[in-house]
Amino acid sequence: MSTFLHRSSAFAAIAFACCAAQAQVAVEDAWVRATVPQQQATGAFMRLTAPKDTRLVGASSPLTPTVEVHEMAMQSDVMKMRQVSSISLVAGQPLDLKPGGFHVMLMGLKQQVKAGDIVPLTLVFEDKNGKRETLQVAAPVRPLNSTGAAAASGSHKH
Question: Is residue 105 helix, strand or coil?
């Protein structure tokens, strides 16, 4: 098993509590969808709440070389996924990153991500003055049949 994935929910709780307390953006219910063997992409989902207007401008993970902020949207009666440069967070209003909407894509996976694993993520936020802040998140992996399973696929078309 990779050194980046841990099967300890205690680790996730400690890592999340440690880093969330220092950040200005609150992250709740972060999770990553499990994959099947050879699947090279998956999504990360969570609820974000910022005390002041800010934007999610990027993300990274030691698990994979490519992490992008994405949006699912209807275009001409077809659901399509595309990378976005940022997602705006309005002060005090929770924003859900969820299947079928905004989410974080982990692409180029080198191994299967299994339920119970913990995926480390670094989220990058930028305020209206261009000041950047990073937030470390330890996201547990949920089974494939978790919320929004119909939107789950390692072969999204862009």
Answer: strand
Residue 12, SS3?
A: helix
Distances (CA, A) of 51 to 39, 105, 137: 37, 25, 18
For residues 106 and 17, give the distance between their C-alpha atoms in angstroms, rounded to a whole number: 23
pTM: 0.76
Q: Are 87 and 56 in contact (CB under 8 A)?
A: yes
Query: How does residue 76 score in pLDDT terms, banded at 50, 70 and 90?
Result: confident
DSSP code, position 102? S
DSSP secondary structure string, 52-73?
S-EEEEEEEBTTBSEEEEEEEE
